[in-house]
Write a structure and sequence with these properties.
Chain lengths: ~550, ~550, ~120
């Protein structure tokens, strides 16, 4: 992660990363000028644009050099506001690669899966703008650019919830916007302080370049801690961490299905990704200093989210609270600050995007068919819709973290890392896994089992097209559960580089390694899912892993 | 002063070509009065003929005056230009386009003339900037009373642009309200000329005179809508409080004169640089009075009380002018007097501005969210924007000044766009300005709703709009001056304001229009003004580099007579 | 107290004496004069004409317009007098300046005239 500038834009014949951001943006503009007469075009064009982005991402994924995954690749840099040292710098390393892939995959699927309820033109335009913003966040290597993208995603999501949502959508949309903006308010001051203070300390010109600022580490310890806090507030709201999470259930419940899928699938990761890239990388010392607090908040989030989810009557709200819990795992993994934890957290970001995204999609389909999401009004859906039930089961088990499915690997690694670093918090957090199994299985039981009465008996099963959309999700769930190595081996170098970065900049930092100093062997992980007895509970797996 | 009487008074050094941006506005206003006095009623046919001609003349006037302002030998340039067939052809095409465009916009003669004057002034400003200021730096205009520096040029450009856009808005508005005539345009041009002088003033007395020229014209403009009692009330309120603030300002000037012995900013700055006042009570009192007086003009809390009533009552396009040009001129004076002249006493006035800024931000954003009337909301939001600009002033640095300029430029277009949409939507008599009238605008007029949404999001500081970059610059200046808490306070109040803008957006997109809601007619000229504002807002949001460079080059300086 | 402020002391004393004098003479009058109020004496004085109607009578708006126009040219004189005494020093430049000044004012008059403000009916 050290030599960003080595790979200048000259090495890349085509600014592929800029294209990833600009294509959906242009697509959104194109949407505005399309004639209103043929509404069916909107969806097709939106799908084509996001499909093109997915295609380009696939090319990036193939071309990505896993041996130098610790460096930013495809770097693409141009001056933006020269006077302020702001540049349009995009780059991709092992950390952002999979999030970009996730984003690129999720958008076309979402567009395909859900019809706009009304005004399709604006709906697809906002979705494409959202894709541009999310891509930008994951790719930006300039603090200004990052902030721009981080903020801009609010607008389309605000309109998606506000205009196409249900229930108290105005309230939910406004709450979502104001909460997130409140967090970013601090971050903006933090970003400016980082850039200006670094310039003052070093005597160099002001620059907002992430790599430069991170390598320079010019800030005094206390200052860096304050600034880290200002960043942490913004990301904590976005994640969301425990005390500032209240916008999430409202936003999810009232959002249209596509909004929920994107919100859970990629937008929550903006927060955790931000903590990783702009928290830990920029302020290693402050991250180490505040890690216990963040792990504590993450653990509270896990338990709180799990308990709250158990008590929900609304299926969508239940999934929303389960997100709070899952994101807690990501945070504790990340702030374990060791290879296992960081990789686990990172992997869990992707996994959560897949499984919760799919879960929201399925809940959305249930709502389309039954016009209710209340668990009490559903029941016995397994009989009329067996395929639907089976798919739901698989996705739900992946969310629970069943070994052999994708959710397990990430959660396991995150807990493993956290156990090494913060033993007691990890043990508390592990009970969250059990509760997750409880509320999800219980919800499944109430919705799909039992006698189907009234409208429930008539429910349509999964159609072929819906099934086709589910195929990529299921494939990802199984592949990443059984053979996560290709994903992990591209993450690992970047994660190791990050840890080296912390070690290099923080005196007496002691990486709490899960296996006594030895880095986790990728080969062990390749068949991690197979090796474990599927009957073993997650807790026993944890203890075994922890014991080494 | 007394001593001067005995000597022969020398004719002050006047740089005519550099004075062209201001002269165009002032003389244009005078000529418009003359023209309208001599030709009260133009025959219909003549009026129809005149508009395309004015459109064509605009192009030539911009070229000629812009050329005069820029170079010392314009005639040679003129001759060469006309000799070049390609250029000549191009000019002809441009003239034709200008004429066609004026016709297409269905402008009235008065509006067309005002647009012409505004555009010519803008061209002159551009000429002075590129051919004189960029090359030779700042220079004196009228002795040491007026100076042209980047700062004054940018503000003059802002004022000229505001005049053009507001004239486009006014055209249909005046027709609609049965107020057609040249009066409003003339007053606006006078006011603009006053503002431009204010931005270039190097003497407190000149500053005061310019401020009065600016203000008195605007008082009348606010009260122009004779059949609306709110408009009368607004005019009177603005007049009384404005006169009150002028008194403060004048008193401040007198006290400063008492402390320093001159009203000339150059002399004051030199004196304060070279001397340390043993007893600075008089100077402190003078600075305080000046701050109060200028604080009134820019609507900083606690001197903001007139703003909501006046903004709500005055004709909407006039409000657009007040919030853009008048405010920009006020901040220009504030920056020149405090940041540049009282630079050596920054430690004394910075805390006061700090407090004003916080108070203004808090009052502006919190009072705004309890309003029901969109115009009143925007009035309060303009107060909170003033607070943001004060944050830049408080930094008392070059970065601060640049950020103030950036904000002033960005906000000018934002606010003209916002009030422009409101002016169109509110219908006859400015009645429909409450939030209910915006209900369902997205289905009635999607383009207008989208435009207003962009303007409001920009005011909230959402990225990819000029509003964000402006906030970024201001907060950057504050952070660089180590005013962290001020920066955080500003950002947090921005979130509160965002809530307000979201309320307006919500009612546009989620509200249901009443069935008997009148259809909204979008006049071409006003539509053009909104499009221009929109393009600039988004353009400066995407590529702010150019404007950023300009504002960085535009640091105010005081020019001593040569 | 500084010398500068001390010199204002004179002004202050002068003001105080002024206020005191008014008080003294009004008080003196109160003591000395005979006090015999009648109804006729309490009436408002209107140049010897018997007052009629309400106190709050409306004046024609045109009075104000004329008053304004008067003030405009009255103030013009205030500027012209000092200028006239120094015309030699200013030379041609001063002449042109004043011509511009008067032209601008005349423009106002012309405008008012063409607007029909000067017509009294």
């Amino acid at each position: 992660m050290s030599s960003l500038l080595a790979a200048s834009s000259a090495d890349v014949p085509f600014p592929i990363l800029s294209a990833l951001v600009v294509t959906p943006f242009l697509g959104a503009l194109l949407m505005l000028v399309l004639p209103n007469g043929r509404p069916e075009y909107f969806k097709q064009v939106a799908f084509l644009v996001s499909g093109a982005v997915a295609g380009m991402t696939a090319w990036v994924m193939v071309e990505f050099d896993k041996h130098t995954a610790d460096e930013f690749q495809f770097v693409d840099s141009a001056e933006w506001i020269a006077g302020l040292g702001i540049s349009w710098t995009l780059g991709l390393d092992g950390i952002s690669l999979w999030l970009v892939v996730l984003t690129a995959a999720l958008f076309p699927l979402t567009i395909l899966a859900i019809e706009a309820e009304h005004t399709p033109k604006a709906y697809y335009a906002w979705l494409l703008l959202l894709e541009a913003g999310v891509m930008g966040v994951f790719l930006a290597l300039d603090l200004f650019a990052f902030f721009v993208f981080f903020e801009i995603v609010l607008v389309p999501m605000y309109f998606l919830i506000g205009q196409w949502g249900h229930g108290a959508r105005a309230y939910a949309a406004t709450k979502f916007f104001v909460y997130t903006m409140f967090g970013s308010a601090f971050m903006l001051v933090g970003i400016l302080a980082t850039a200006f203070l670094t310039a003052a300390e070093t005597g160099n010109a002001v620059s907002f370049d992430l790599v430069y600022l991170a390598e320079e580490q010019a800030l005094a310890t206390t200052t860096a801690r304050w600034i880290f806090l200002s960043f942490a507030v913004a990301f904590a709201v976005k994640v969301p961490l425990f005390p500032v999470h209240t916008w999430l259930p409202d936003a999810h419940t009232n959002a249209p299905t596509a909004g929920s899928v994107i919100l859970a699938g990629v937008m929550l990761k903006l927060g955790t990704y931000g903590l990783l890239r702009f928290g830990i990388y920029l302020f290693p010392e402050a991250s180490v200093y505040f890690a216990p607090a963040l792990v504590a908040l993450g653990t509270i989030g896990i338990i709180y989210g799990a308990i709250a989810a158990t008590m929900q009557k609304d299926l969508k709200r239940l999934v929303a609270y389960s997100s709070v819990a899952h994101l807690g795992f990501i945070v504790i993994g990340t702030f374990a600050l060791n290879t296992e934890g960081l990789s686990g957290g990172l992997l869990q970001m992707v996994n959560h995007g897949i499984s919760t995204g799919a879960l929201f999609l399925l809940v959305g389909w249930i709502y389309d068919r039954r016009h209710t999401r209340l668990i009490a009004e559903l029941g016995g859906l397994q009989k009329p819709a067996p395929v639907f039930a089976a798919v739901f089961m698989v996705v739900m088990l992946s969310s629970v973290g069943l070994p052999g499915l994708n959710g397990f690997v990430g959660e396991f690694l995150a807990l493993l890392g956290a156990f090494a670093a913060h033993r007691w918090w990890a043990i508390v957090a592990a009970t969250g896994v059990v509760i997750a199994a409880l509320y999800l299985l219980w919800a499944y039981q109430r919705v799909f089992h039992g006698p189907a009465e009234g409208d429930n008996a008539e429910m349509k099963d999964l159609t072929w097209s819906e099934g086709a959309i589910m195929v990529p999700f299921l494939a990802a769930i199984f592949v990443m559960g059984l053979y996560p190595a290709p994903v992990l081996e591209r993450m690992e170098p970047a994660v190791d580089a990050l840890i080296e970065h912390i070690e290099g900049n923080v005196e007496d930092f002691d990486e709490a390694d899960a296996d006594q100093g030895e880095d986790l062997d990728v080969d062990d992980l390749k068949d991690l899912g197979k090796k474990k007895d599927s009957k073993a509970t997650d807790e026993s797996a944890l203890v075994e892993g922890g014991a080494g | 002063m007394i001593a001067q009487l005995d000597s022969t008074v020398a004719r002050p050094e006047i740089t005519w070509d550099g004075l062209l941006p201001i002269l165009t506005l002032g003389v244009g206003a005078l000529l418009l009065v003359l023209f309208r006095s001599l030709m009260k009623q133009l025959p219909k046919a003549a009026a129809d003929q005149a508009v395309p001609v004015i459109g064509g003349v605009t192009v030539i006037a911009m070229w000629v005056v812009g050329g005069f302002a820029g170079t010392d030998v314009p005639l040679a340039g003129l001759r060469d230009g006309l000799g070049d067939p390609v250029f000549f052809l191009g000019l002809l095409i441009m003239v034709g386009l200008g004429g066609w465009f004026a016709q297409y916009l269905r402008l009235s003669v008065d509006a067309a003339l005002t647009v012409m004057i505004g555009l010519t002034s803008l061209a002159a400003t551009w000429g002075v900037w590129t051919d004189r200021y960029e090359i030779d730096g700042a220079f004196g205009l009228v002795g040491d009373q007026l100076g042209a520096d980047g700062f004054s040029l940018v503000i003059t450009g802002v004022i000229a642009s505001a005049i053009v856009l507001v004239a486009l808005l006014l055209d249909d508005y005046l027709e609609r309200e049965g107020m057609a005539g040249a009066d409003m345009y003339v007053l606006m041009l006078f006011s603009g000329a006053g503002g431009a002088v204010m931005a270039s003033a190097n003497d407190l007395i000149v500053l005061f005179l310019a401020l009065e020229t600016l203000s008195i014209a605007v008082y009348v403009m606010a009260a122009m809508h004779m059949r609306r009692s709110e408009s009368q009330e607004a005019g009177l309120k603005y007049f009384v409080l404005g006169a009150f603030s002028s008194a403060f300002l004048l008193y401040g000037i007198a006290l400063t004169y008492g402390a320093v012995g001159s009203t000339n900013l150059i002399v004051i700055a030199d004196f304060l640089e070279q001397n340390r006042l043993v007893e600075d009570g008089l100077l402190m009192a003078g600075m305080a009075m000046l701050l109060v007086g200028l604080g009134f003009k820019v609507a900083a809390a606690p001197f903001h009380a007139w703003t909501p009533d006046v903004y709500q009552g005055a004709p909407t396009p006039v409000v657009a002018f007040m919030a853009s040009a008048v405010k920009a001129a006020g901040f220009a004076a504030l920056v020149r007097v405090f940041v540049t002249t009282f630079a050596d006493h920054a430690d004394d006035w910075q805390p006061a501005v700090y407090a004003l800024a916080i108070l203004t931000l808090v009052v502006g954003s919190f009072m705004a969210i309890v309003q029901r009337d969109a115009k009143r909301m925007l009035a309060y939001s303009s107060i909170s924007h003033a607070g943001f600009i004060l944050v830049g002033v408080q930094a008392a640095s070059n970065e601060g000044v640049s950020s103030v300029l950036f904000y002033a430029v960005a906000y000018t277009f934002l606010v003209i766009g916002s009030f422009g949409v409101l002016s169109i939507v509110s219908g006859e008599g400015d009645r429909g300005t409450s939030l209910d009238h915006l209900d369902g605008l997205s289905t009635r007029r999607p383009a207008l709703a989208l435009a207003l949404t962009v303007f409001l999001l920009a005011q909230a500081g959402v990225p990819l709009t000029s509003g964000f970059v402006a906030k970024f610059a201001v907060i950057g200046a504050a952070v660089e001056a180590r005013s962290y808490w001020l920066a955080i306070a500003a950002m947090v109040t921005a979130v509160v304001s965002a809530f307000l803008y979201l309320r307006i957006i919500l009612s546009m997109y989620l509200g249901q229009a009443e069935d008997d809601a009148p259809t909204i007619r979008v006049p071409r000229a006003a539509g053009l003004a909104i499009i221009v504002a929109l393009v600039i807002t988004v353009g400066f949001g995407l590529v702010p580099g150019e404007l950023d460079d300009i504002t960085r080059d535009a640091i105010p300086v005081l020019i001593a007579a040569g | 107290m500084s010398d500068f402020l001390r010199s204002y002391l004179t002004v202050g004393i002068f003001g105080l004496i002024g206020v005191a004098l008014v008080g003294v003479f009004l008080g003196l009058g109160k003591i000395l004069r005979p006090n015999k109020p009648t109804l006729a004496k309490t009436e408002a004085y209107e140049s010897g004409v018997e007052p009629t109607g309400d106190m709050w009578s409306q004046a024609n708006i045109r009075y104000y317009v004329f008053a304004l126009l008067f003030v405009m040219f009255d103030v013009e004189a205030v500027f012209i007098f000092p200028w006239a005494t120094r015309l030699e020093a200013y030379g041609t430049f001063g002449l042109i300046e004043m011509a511009i000044f008067i032209f601008i004012l005349l423009l106002g008059l012309l405008y008012a005239w063409r607007k029909g403000v000067l017509k009294w009916a």
